[in-house]
Amino acid sequence: MQIILLSGGSGQRLWPLSNEVRSKQFLKIFSEAGGESMLQRVLNQIRRTCAESTVTIATAKKQVTLLKKYLGEDFDLATEPCRRNTFPAIALAAAYLNDVKGVDVNEPVIVCPVDPYVDDNFFAQFHTLAAQITDSAPLVLMGIEPTYPSEKYGYIIPCTKDNVSRVKMFKEKPNLADAQKFIDAGGLWNGGVFAFKLGYVLNKAQELLGTSSHDELTATYDALPNISFDYAVVEHEPNIAVVRYVGAWKDIGTWNTLTEVLESNSIGEVQTDKTCANLHVINNGDVPIICMGLKDAVVVAGTDGILVSDKVASSYIKPFVERLDKQVRFAEKSWGSFKIIDADKHSLTVKVTLNRGSRMRYHSHERRDEVWTLISGAGIVILNDRAKFVRAGDVIKIPAGCKHTVIADEPLKIIEVQLGEDITVEDKIIWQEAI
Amino acid sequence: MQIILLSGGSGQRLWPLSNEVRSKQFLKIFSEAGGESMLQRVLNQIRRTCAESTVTIATAKKQVTLLKKYLGEDFDLATEPCRRNTFPAIALAAAYLNDVKGVDVNEPVIVCPVDPYVDDNFFAQFHTLAAQITDSAPLVLMGIEPTYPSEKYGYIIPCTKDNVSRVKMFKEKPNLADAQKFIDAGGLWNGGVFAFKLGYVLNKAQELLGTSSHDELTATYDALPNISFDYAVVEHEPNIAVVRYVGAWKDIGTWNTLTEVLESNSIGEVQTDKTCANLHVINNGDVPIICMGLKDAVVVAGTDGILVSDKVASSYIKPFVERLDKQVRFAEKSWGSFKIIDADKHSLTVKVTLNRGSRMRYHSHERRDEVWTLISGAGIVILNDRAKFVRAGDVIKIPAGCKHTVIADEPLKIIEVQLGEDITVEDKIIWQEAI
Q1: What ipTM was assigned to the predicted interfaces of this complex?
Q2: What are phi and psi of B238, to 5 degrees?
Q3: pTM for this structure?
Q4: Which of A274, A284, A340, A373 to mutate to test the interface with B (most CBs of B within 10 A)?
Q5: Which residues numbered 304-363 in A keep a CB inside 8 Å of some CB on B?
């Protein structure tokens, strides 16, 4: 059995903690001590319940570095050259399994989003889904038994209330009255899990995208239609089965739902008064937060911004985040992290942290000088192919055009002042490593 | 007529924008474009209504630099060596007027807090207060005609409902029912304005503090009793008159009251959704704020922290602020400003801004090195008595023990990295200027 985890979301709904490169699946907020991320949690659950299956993570190119950092090289990655909707992403991952990994077209494939917050039993059901794939029902879905008449989810109406049933119809996010009717009729929430044999989706790719070749899909990816798997495939498939899942299920893609599964009501330096109720405060910033008299609210502060919202309203954040300047102020890299601590007209000051043993890529800039002040650790700086030992307190001047890198012998921290009239992330030339 | 403006408050109730050195009276939030501060507004009103009077500002030593920066040298300052309550502050200011300025003991004095938000007519009434001071009523107060039965203010119950009346009694912050009763009985809010002849308070100082000498009061200031003028004087004075003021009056000492007089519901980079109501957002920080679904709330973000509060609850912020680490992350100085942009174990990174023509004091540190990277402007750096021209892009290393200063020929910005195991504001030795 092959499992494809869809990890390509932009995570705008969890702004300001997630952004284009630091997507929601990496947020480590499931314990006070910065414990498990969403992705780690899901992978551990799959390991326990589907030990014999192979996991492939379908992800955007921008997130590959971070995925490798968190997960090592143990997982296959089907890398999307740019962000597209779920149909192109699933087609590409399927083509990757067939062309690159040599997976047989008859092998069952389960596609699952990376952000369900569920019991292990949810993943154990993957075996049932795989077993239900037949010629007369080539597509099998996971239906989640509803706990309340939610207006937020799509509904699957099965023909029977059995554990496995044919699907009668689908209903997109209904109003409250309709949601109750669907539940009375045995309706299930659509959990976004799809099961099929690999060949099924390769055929759909051939039919709808003109090819099922991994190379061709990759080469033309940015021109592929931006449509969802539901819209392109599910809605047109007359023969679908659904497997019923009874147990805890939350999509933790919004602050409203994510806060429901947090162990603590506050993370970071936070004070709240006694009149606060149903309040979650996540302080990932540098300054203290005081909250008073807030009810049913979420407050999140990070390097990119501050969100203060009624919990229900927080689900509708996306258009507000889209309006923001997209400068990434904090990012984790394979070698460590960087954080913009000051932006001025002709300068940018960045705190750079390197892990022990790591190095930046050897590079130069054309339109900016840099001044590095090492504030802790020790290592080797290479400037125009000449190496030099450095330690805390040392200052390194890097004029425009100078090739440079640093290798951290110990965890290393640098205050980097960039100086120039035109400071952009694009101004970077990568060179062959000198040593 | 002498006017003493009490400007010594710590402004904790307006955290995070005010702090020990950047007190509330300097907040420039009365127009979008960073316009008038509270203090400037009040001084302009006094200039219009009491042109012939002399204004003395009673203030804490910590705030003198900032006061001079904002007001120039046009005003007399009665400087309190440390923070004390209103009785010692008024006694010291009175002694200053008599001993230092030679003001006659028979001259009328009006004491007024610096934070009433009122019509010009409020200050015009000072003439009436001064005229009412007699031997049979040596103390005259300003009574504000209440607009609603507030539980936040003290009440003055006059003998009659005339414009000027004797005071029958005082009532501290009552409950709602009592407040209504007081209003029905002609009660007035106590606005904290006191009028008397200079000799009256000098006598009280002699009687209660053992001296009315400015030098002696200054020398023993930290040992003086920390009591209010109301408690020490007003409550024991049987013969008090009150002048009735009818017109707009707000004490803008809390976010709840201050937001009532702001022209705009948001300042700085802020987005709010359509479901927000009676919301004020003041973003004085570096990152955007998104607010959704908030009602009757105030959100304030600054360099020192973030406040998110129900408006009414925000009045009770003081104990929460007192619990915070008191490190000042941003401060305005006579020569410019500084802002801490990163704090690490053995380093502190500060953005320093110098005004054109200004200079730091010539100083050295014993237990830290500094690295300055000039990011804009030009000037002269002096290191151990040797001067050197510097401009944007230059890097200056200042080892521990090295005497240093900078003189800004143009507005100058520096990223200063402090390095050491024991970085404190106390580690500073001031030297005689070299040039």
Answers
A1: 0.78
A2: -75, -20
A3: 0.78
A4: A373
A5: 304-310, 312-314, 316-317, 320-321, 323-325, 329, 341-347, 349, 351
